[in-house]
Amino acid sequence: MKNGVTFVVHGNSDAEYKRTLHDMCYNFLNLYQTKYADVQPDTEEFHLPRHILKVDLYSAFLEHLQNTPYEIQPSYTTFRRVWEKDFLNLKIPKRTRLGKCDICANLSNMSLRLTAENRVMWSNRKREHLKFQRDERNENTRRINFANTYPNLITLLGIDRMNAIRMPWQVPFPKSWLTKNRLRYEVIGLMNFSHVKHVFYHGLSLFQHDSDTTLTLLYSKIRCLRIDGQCGNQLQLHMDNCYRENKNKFVFAFCCMLVHKKWFQEISLFFLPPGHTHAENDAMFVPLSKGKWLTNCHSPPKFATEFVPHCYRRYKNIPQPDLENIKFVYGFKDLLSPYIRNIQHHGSPQAFHFVLVDDNVEMFYKSSCLDPQ
């Protein structure tokens, strides 16, 4: 009673209702989709790892709610109902056209001949692999956020190549064109995560698909950043696991050269595990991959003036990257070859570090970015 007025508090006034249960499920699924699902470049879907089960995701959800009283935790039925209602595009694929890592392939083969004795072992291996993948994706996101917060300390660049577009391109596609020798038009995305400014390098397929193209684009971008005073002391690179273009001795030698010339104090080179790289790099090409089924591109000059603007017209919240034509490629392989030692067994490690020690550039590597120093 207060000021002669009696206040009655309903017994359920502090209870969590279904709306709150829905929000807990929704927020978790939205976070999981953003951080761990692979953006499909040619559909509206987000794919989770193939071997995950909905009950596994619900178990991760309960771990996320470990500080929440058991009485107000959503049930598995509520969790599935929210998923089916609000996340129709979040899928667990039965099969995928994208590459699979070795462990995923082995787990897939083992699942065909499971017995009561090895089922527990298979489940534990699957759980450990999915956790490892999530941790690596978290570390990948952490690096991007840190570079975006402190662009004067770290310059973080990512580079990836889109599947070539055959020109002339037309929708609907005439069947008679299948026998025509059409032009290959290449699109390479270079992402500056530190300043959130991305570039599409595009042009006819006139140059070899090797590290010369990769190093030319990286060198041009880094040089422009140095001229503008936007380079940090440390360079980090996110690359695909393609040996021909990225993960080879020429890219390593280029990083050593940049450190030796004191353009950077240290350089870190990161590769996500094969089959799990469909993250920020690949997501850059989603507007083009989906938009090409809604528009035409009959000649190379139309790519920049009509094709790209039309593809980005549907995406109001995604700025269109800058467009630059690939007019030349430097011969970095010929330049660096006389100074490169014959290195081997560099295919498995996923993290490399280059630093100057006593006037000599030394390269360190480890299996994963999560491994201790």
Keywords:
globular; 373 residues; 12 strands
Structure notes:
There is one protein chain. The chain is an alpha/beta fold and 373 residues long. The protein folds into 2 domains: 18-136, no CATH class; 138-366, no CATH class. It is built from 11 helices and 12 strands. The strands form 2 sheets. Strands 4, 5, 6, 7, 8, 9, 10, 11 and 12 form a 9-stranded mixed β-sheet that branches. A 3-stranded mixed β-sheet has the order 1-2-3, with no helix packed on it. Helix 1 (18-36) packs across helix 3 (76-86) and helix 4 (102-111) packs antiparallel against helix 5.
Strand percentage lies at 15-25%
**Low-confidence parts, pLDDT < 50 over ≥5 residues?**
13-18
Specify the number of helices.
11
The proportion of residues forming helix, as a percent range, comes to 25-40%
- What's the structural domain tally? 2
User: What about the largest sheet?
Assistant: 9 strands, mixed
Form type: globular
> Ends: how far apart?
64 Å
Structural class: alpha/beta
Give the SSE map.
Blueprint: H1 18-36, E1 38-39, E2 46-47, H2 54-64, H3 76-86, E3 90-91, H4 102-111, H5 119-149, E4 154-161, E5 165-167, E6 183-192, E7 197-204, H6 211-227, E8 234-239, H7 249-260, E9 266-271, H8 280-283, H9 286-291, H10 301-311, E10 322-325, H11 332-336, E11 351-357, E12 360-366
Parallel strand pairs: 2-3, 4-8, 7-10, 8-9
Antiparallel strand pairs: 1-2, 4-6, 5-6, 6-7, 9-11, 11-12
Helix pairs in contact: 1-3, 4-5
